[in-house]
């Protein structure tokens, strides 16, 4: 039984100390329950999540504190998006599909109806606190191109918000992200939908979609700053991108942001729906910059923010253990600290274990 407690800076915490109170993260989720005996690994994790102080037991009756042998695993409730959000999203899918048809026929678009729907969706979705949750739940409709377009728009706008950009630039990101691939309407569908690998010639044809998109948007009176999102979303920092092989600051900010959103959304969409494990792997891969030289500052911010949504995920490890993700290292999002019914599993230390399944986000 705990008879006395004191507050301790995490920097001064020693292994063996026993928590006298529960520790919560900034989102109010339980990280470590009362009675947890601190280990070096747990202390490191607390520092990573910027916890400053914790309460520890000063005197215990008995040789050691009781470990949480049957620590309750909190229930994560997966709520569906509100109907109005889904209605708005479905309308938007139809509207974006019309834009592609219109652009194909006339090489210009009337963007106003879509702009209104986008604003509406942005407003509704801004009320969803867990952005990862939102993006996953919006992936219930199977028109890849259009849902990808909207997904990239929302992601780009969200990155802009995380970067502290103003409302005008966030609007531009939303629109530019949504229309980034509009130029694909000019590419032969047989090439775009080809299941096998493209030939060099076919790939060269596909590359034109960036310039086509820019031209369509400019023809339609869309602002230059928005149109460059289409032009530059395949440019890469190291000059390896297309169509112009721009580098670093030659690429507009909107181009660099939409590129990150495009890569992340495309990589996660290719997986089976709700294969949430892929979010861990994809962020790992995006972070390692394995898919082209994306802007490192945008990537770092994006990974840091997205991984914060992993906390609280209900997961199953490959040895069958159920658990809750409690801490996610920024540099290794696939190796979080997992709380199980019998204690903690630190995947940074346990290379034999990995997350096999994500049950709920
Ligand atoms: Fe593209």
UniProtKB/TrEMBL annotation:
InterPro entries annotated for this entry? HD/PDEase_dom, HD_GYP_dom, HDIG_dom
Q: Which residues form a coiled coil?
A: none
* Stored Gene3D superfamilies: Hypothetical protein af1432
User: Residues in domain HD-GYP?
Assistant: 123-318
One Gene Ontology molecular-function label: transferase activity
- Provide this UniProt record's keywords sorted from A to Z: Transferase
Report what the protein is called: Putative nucleotidyltransferase with HDIG domain
Species, as recorded = Tumebacillus permanentifrigoris
